[in-house]
Amino acid sequence: MESVEARIEQALRGVIDPELGADIVDLGMVKRVEVDDGTATIGVALTIAACPLRDQIEQDVKRKVLALPEIREVLVQVTAMTSDEKAEIMSKARWKAREDAEPTMIHPSTRVIAISSGKGGVGKSSTSVNLAVALAQRGLRVGLLDADIWGFSVPRMLGIGSVRLEANDDAQIVPVQAHGLDVVSTGLLIDDEDKALMWRGLMLSKALEQFLTDVAWQTLDYLVIDMPPGTGDIQMALSRLLPQAEMVVVTTPQRAAQKVASRVADMARRSFMPVIGVLENMSGFTTEDGRHYKLFGEGGGQELADDLGVPLVGQIPLDPFIVEAGDSGVPLVISHPDSPAAAALVNVAKRLVELIPPAEDETCTARIDRLIEGLQRISS
């Protein structure tokens, strides 16, 4: 026969923490359940003892437990969580948010690569654009989402700054075609790229959500997302909306930049978003006569990769053609394919395909085909 304590625990599953969106039992907030002569004593640990929602949670606990016929009185004892308990409960909440993510227009088989950085000015957007084009040059179906809502620069880099997004007959946004990519950006919605967007956190998250749920994306092999720098609302929304997203962290060689970049990697992992690699940008400059200058130091990318336990997927040298390509609207890998930076970017794209192959290449049938091809080569 089920004990009274077990029935109380079951009843407490109906008490939802409004901020974390899960019941207090699954979140591990119930620390004590005791029953003595019809009086139930419930110990509840909150993230902070002075939580604004404390009264609501206490009243919900009392109502749920008093509904049991064996219980005449409920005493709720509230305590504050330790730092370890807070970390554990936030991890559970983030996991639940990912599991309960609403469906988007991004096909589940699409590989999603979030190009991220700890701070601005490290060449994240030019990297996103050129990697996306390099992937498309491999014959893959690639989308590019400019999620840097405030600091959008993708339209200019692709030469589509004067183009505007339109809707189809189903009232869905149609991506703009550019250099073999499906492209969506806030810059394709506004009339003046010099106008500042005075949007706060919730509006930023909603903009990203609209770009994922109201856009008529085709079935893509890869979706490259140019993320805003740092660890804000967009980053947290992405981990919730696209559970299959994986991150590449862009940094420069200097150690200070590496330390900043480690924060965005920490945020990703705490949100259950795998970090698949580190990309070091601005890795020195070589003159025409062959002299090499390490203008921003050295070692930061490799050190960050080692700290995270992921590969350093590439080192992109400084190249004046990158600036020229960005201003002209023709990506470097197209305009100057023989330049050192373009070659390095193409190699990074190749490396990413090796690390996270297109989903159709990972099916059982595809693996069997590759195995048969390998056996045929051996036998011949």
Query: Distance N terminus to C terminus?
Result: 69 Å
Order of strands in the sheet with the most strands?
A: 10-11-7-12-6-13-14-17
**Class computed from helices, strands and strand pairing:** alpha/beta
Query: How many domain regions?
Result: 2
Binned, the helix content reads: 25-40%
Radius of gyration: 25 Å
Q: What is the CATH first-level class name of the largest domain?
A: Alpha Beta
* Assembly of the depicted chains: single chain
**How many distinct beta strands?**
17
How big a fraction of the residues is strand? 15-25%
The description of the largest β-sheet is:
8 strands, mixed
Can you tell me the overall shape? Answer: elongated
Q: What is the annotated CATH architecture of the largest domain?
A: 3-Layer(aba) Sandwich
